[in-house]
Design a protein that fits this description.
Blueprint: E1 21-23, E2 27-30, E3 33-40, E4 45-53, E5 58-61, E6 76-80, E7 85-89, E8 98-99, E9 106-113, E10 116-124, E11 141-148, E12 163-170, E13 172-173, E14 184-187, E15 204-208, E16 226-234, E17 237-238, E18 242-249, E19 259-262, E20 278-282, E21 300-308, E22 311-312, E23 316-322, E24 334-338, E25 355-359, E26 377-385, E27 388-389, E28 393-400, E29 411-415, E30 432-437, E31 455-462, E32 465-466, E33 470-477, E34 488-491, E35 509-515, E36 521-524, E37 535-542, E38 545-546, E39 550-556, E40 569-571, E41 578-582, E42 587-593, E43 599-604, E44 609-613, E45 620-628, E46 633-640
Parallel strand pairs: 14-18, 19-23, 24-28, 29-33, 34-39
Antiparallel strand pairs: 1-3, 1-13, 2-3, 3-4, 4-10, 5-6, 5-11, 6-7, 7-8, 9-10, 11-12, 15-16, 16-17, 16-18, 20-21, 21-22, 21-23, 25-26, 26-27, 26-28, 30-31, 31-32, 31-33, 35-36, 35-37, 37-38, 37-39, 40-41, 41-44, 42-43, 42-45, 45-46
Keywords: Signal
Protein name: Secretion system C-terminal sorting domain-containing protein
Signal peptide: 1-19
Amino acid sequence: MKKLLLIAAVLLSGAGLYAQSKTTGVVNLLTGMTAKIDLNNTTSTATLTFTGPSDRWYALQFGSFVQGDGMHAGKDVVYYNGTTLVDAVHNGVGIAPSTDPINNWTVTSNTVAGGTRTIVATRAFNTGDTNDYTFVYADTNIDFAYSRSATASFSLAYHQNNRGYAINNAFSCIAPDAPTASAQSFCNAATVSNLVATGAAGATFNWYAAATGGTALTGGTALTSTTYYVSQTVDACESARIPVPVTVTTVAQPTASATQQFCSEATVANLTATGTGTINWYAAPTGGAPLAATTILTAGNYYVSQTVGSCESTRATVAVSYVPLAAPTTSDTTQDFCSGAEVSNLMATPMAGAQLHWYAVPTGGAELPGDMGLATTTYYVSQTMGGCVSERLPIEVTVTAVPGPSTSNETQAFCEGATLADLDLNTTAGTTLKWHLAAGGGELPATTELVNGTAYNATQSIGECESPPQTINVIVNPIPATPGGNETQQFTAGQTIADLEISVFVGATIKWYMLNDGGDLIEVGTDTVLEDGGMYHVTQTINGCESDMLMIMAQEQLGTSDFELKSLVAYPNPVNDVVTISNNTTLSEAAVYNLLGQKVISQKAQGDKIEINVSKLPAGSYSIKVLTANGASASLKIMKQ
């Protein structure tokens, strides 16, 4: 037999300064057949991308050889067998390769397009398997040897001329990811050295004026408002560039009224200007030192700038004059409030340093106190500053009163588990209902469970306006205990539910239930005739609150055949998986019932033991009804853990 596989050897040398990846790039082998090796120094992982015909086997071997060298027996080889990439050892001419016990290649992709199969697989540099070739990141090149089937077949056979070598395929670095950098802003004389980017540890950042081409800018290059581009170099390999918008800002003048008037002596502290930095006032358009805040103003021009960081804007001119005090301003001359609002809630804007005064009349009258309640009417506001009193500004006010919720029963009773949503309350359409404790505290959700003896306040709101509260006192009655009684009770033919023995509280209302054919519990009368094996459920109700159910299994007292089950036992009990029912006579059937009386397991038997698997049942108490071959019956209780 001719050689079945050719051999590829990986020869690696040289190491980068930083953890990085490098690749051979795609190496053309035969028509439609290529190989590429990527080495990741960070993860010590080799990635093979191997293409070939989709209808036949093709292979690579790793080892050390020269062009025209023969294949190396006992060396690592990988080949596609029609299903996956096989990790094997070449055994020489005419002998099939030996498959490694562990395939250390992990195929991450196996796709076919246009008759060409592309396999991507990864493997550790050193697998620890002596059959596997060890990749070394420091190597600078790699040799490939290759072969493929001469025919469309995955059966290993002579490759004929479909073989060859690719020697000294050099590794080149895989460019790192581009760095990250956000848009950056500077004031005045910033340079490239002020730009900031984030990338790989130890990376060198390169800043450019263009997206491609050109040379890197020096650190001293002055910045302008434009887009710069940054890459990073790791291990002499440069990444792609990303754009970084840069804004170089010359600080704008602050905003200030060009004319500012006062009615009495004022100081620099009374001047107003707004900006994003520190405001500076001067007596000249250029030069000089900023004026102290206590400097007394005279009629004439003053000049204002702002400082942001180390940059100061040019100065704006403000003409100062002394005139009577103007009325205060407001952004809303028609103001809406909820009932309970006070004069202190009215809104107007005074001049800096001025005090507001509110009145019920346009002139004269007494000043209104801040805690005086508002009404739907017109109010008037003036301002004073330094002994100056302004004209009054009218403000039209509308006060909205929200009606409170109501109830015909301010003391309401419920059973345990009731919530605020269960309270009986009349509300107004279009309002939002809110609940609070009458004793105070934050808003309560409607799902809040009621507490006995607690008073709750209900309000309703429209927009931001909330009504007076409606108080409801709550009585929460406890749910009575489950009725007492034996869970298995015997009866004689003709007896009814009334003959079952239970214990309840004095005055409680008793209700009996049974399962109908649809599996639903329905209430039944005490005159219902008992049935052997029947499940009967009983509750007691006090103050309208119904207890949990007691389930009673009724057993009819039969003849002497029932003595056949006198030795009936169930073990283990409690049980996790399998319970065994044992008796001294032949058993025919056993059925397991839950607390609702529903049959959950039924099992036939032909001996004196029955094993029932209850592992899938939820934990809890269950009843087992057992029948003998002679028709006798008895019940047992078990506890499933």
